Amino acid sequence: MTDARETATPEDEVAAPVPLLDPREGIPPVTADPEALKEVVAAFAAGSGPVAVDAERASGYRYGQRAYLVQLRRAGAGTALIDPVGCPDLSTLDAALRGTEWVLHAATQDLPCLTELGMHPTSLFDTELAGRLAGFPRVGLGAMVEQVLGFALEKGHSAVDWSTRPLPEPWLRYAALDVELLVDLRDALEEELRTQGKLDWALQEFAAIAAAPPPAPRVDPWRRTSGMHKVRRRRQIGVVRELWLARDRAARERDVSPGRVLSDAAIVTAALENPPNVHALAALPGFGHRMGRRQLDQWQAAVDRARGLPERELPQPTAAYNGPPPPRAWADKDPAAAARLSAARAAVTGLAEELNLPQENLITPDTVRRVCWSPPGDRSPEAVAEALTALGARPWQVQLTSPLLSKALSAVPAAEA
What we know:
By secondary structure, the chain is α/β, with parallel strands linked by helices. The chain contains 21 helices and eight strands. The chain is flat and about 65 Å long.
């Protein structure tokens, strides 16, 4: 078969993306046992240059976010597809790649599941984040490969159940192609960032991601139940919590996505209706006739637990938070802070547009809110820079935003403050 990469011309790339149909060395065999993994480790240790890394999860099908396929590609080693079910410990591969730059797309999505396998980069290049900083309007992998390199990736298997075994050949082809051009994309984006004078910004961001500790477990994850805003009373909120926790236990035991055990909509409905017994619960949407008596009993038991809680043990309407209140409340609570925030937002928006990058990449909205709610006593650029650094802003962000935020904070008349 003729490789599209050999026949594409610049005119073709401009006119229409060239479909990328097959990996250049074909689909590699899946590495699924320790002996085969040793060969992959040796090959990648002997390779050269950056290593492209990707992972496929079974979100929406299995409990948690663990990886069910890991893809790598490196010059001199080719492409490897590793099955973490058969090879759950990739620490030897990690050791072989120490000091090698990893190239990932949306690194923060894949790093947690790779860390579970014993892998974590010492340095990385995130092609999605690079695209954001470079001002590309679409930063998905397919869009970036198309815009930057002129090739069209297949998009049909991104949301399949990657825990399926054996994995179908079309899925493996898709997975291999995800890392096929990742290093090429990295090189092109590095040059683009250098041309725009943004490469140092990107390198600081990549270093921060690589050095970041694993994310801490979310406090009160049940509060993220979709539709939670409809639930107002503490007793109802208690029902949401108890049902969410019961669902989470069941999902973990069965190794299925919680949404496949019980939907968020059903949890919220039960909280609002507060069914007194199993018969009433079964009549609610989401608890229909297909649900067995044993399941209904466990959900009703959760509702009953919430109903029986003393008032002091019921959850508060909002989660504990050490930051400023929601901005919509600022005008009433602190009009001066609201004025500072308005001025700061306008300044950040203007600079982000001038630099052609998203506002949240220039400086996070939470950082802006915090410095506006509790500004330093000395509102000079130096004092603001110190405050931004303490809040986790990178040096490039501090350098660009501290002067304009200092001006915004100082713009509020003393009488208002």
